[in-house]
Design a protein that fits this description.
Pfam family, one: Glycos_transf_2
Shape: globular
CATH architecture: Alpha-Beta Complex
Number of strands: 12
Largest sheet: 7 strands, mixed
Helix content: 25-40%
Structural class: alpha/beta
Radius of gyration: 22 Å
CATH class: Alpha Beta
Number of helices: 8
Strand order of the largest sheet: 3-2-1-4-9-6-10
Oligomer: single chain
GO molecular function: glycosyltransferase activity
Keywords: Glycosyltransferase, Signal, Transferase
Order of helices and strands: HEHEHEHEEHEEEEHHEEHE
Protein name: Nucleotide-diphospho-sugar transferase
Distance between the termini: 76 Å
CATH superfamily: Spore Coat Polysaccharide Biosynthesis Protein SpsA, Chain A
Length: 251
């Protein structure tokens, strides 16, 4: 009888542990499905623009988001900017030592993310408040949804639309299904400082991604501080009424 009693106690304990693990797993799954888009922001010495970037990410009209900032060993006031948002439960950050580069930062963000989709924003860029909601509306049965991005500077609210090619870089204009990225082991190549984004996109396309294209409805991802001097002069001096190539930022 003693052996039977011990076996019964062991069986009850075994069932209780497994039930607890099952319930915990269900809670984690439910938590993950609540996040529709995880927004990853790698940052290196961009304190002057990071606050704007985070603010636009957290105040999306799509409420089911999380924002992950990867501080890549910045030496400016990046940590002070991050501290402003630490009490927001949708916000997480991590610091890297020493500097690892944007590819490592983005990859770490992908691993940390619990969202259904992944979005990327460079820390000196920003997105319109409606950007991710408009992309997510088109995401059913898709692995990538591609929106609109424009080139601008931090000196003006004018911009020029980017002419997309069959294969191009800039991962920030799209959302990427996390399960798809994990299944095909799609990540950024570490220690590659140029062209890492186009290689990422190429591998995704070559993995037979199901792709949707968003309409040019005015909601966009804005690439800032990346234009040469000639383009900056055109933006600053251009009258938008005279050239359809140029527009005004809605933010």
């Amino acid at each position: 009888m003693r052996i039977i009693k011990e076996l019964l106690n062991f069986l009850i304990l075994f069932i209780s542990i497994n039930l607890f693990q099952f319930v915990n797993a269900e809670i984690e799954i439910e938590k993950e499905t609540l996040v529709k888009v995880s927004i990853i922001i790698p940052s290196y010495n961009s304190a002057d623009y990071l606050d704007r970037c985070i603010e636009h990410a957290l105040n999306q009209t799509l409420s089911e988001i999380e924002v992950i900032v990867i501080n890549d060993n910045s030496t400016d006031d990046t940590e002070k900017v991050i501290e402003k948002y630490n009490n927001d439960e949708r916000f997480r950050s991590i610091s890297l030592y020493p500097n690892k580069g944007p590819s490592v930062g983005r990859n770490l963000g992908i691993e940390m993310a619990v969202g259904e989709f992944i979005g990327f924003i460079d820390s000196d860029d920003y997105v319109d408040y409606e950007f991710y909601e408009n992309l997510y509306k088109l995401s059913k049965d898709k692995d990538i949804v591609i929106g609109v991005f424009v080139n601008s500077t931090n000196d003006t609210d004018k911009y020029t639309k980017h002419s997309k090619f069959v294969m191009y870089g800039c991962v920030g204009d799209s959302i990427w299904r996390k399960r798809f990225l994990d299944k095909h082991q799609i990540r950024f190549i570490p220690n590659v400082n140029k062209g890492e984004d186009i290689r990422f996109r190429k591998k995704a396309y070559n993995s037979k991604a199901r792709i949707a294209y968003g309409e040019d409805n005015g909601y966009k991802s804005v690439n800032s501080t990346k234009l040469n001097n000639d383009m900056k002069d055109k933006l600053l001096n251009n009258s938008n009424d005279n050239n359809d190539e140029f527009g005004n930022s809605a933010v």
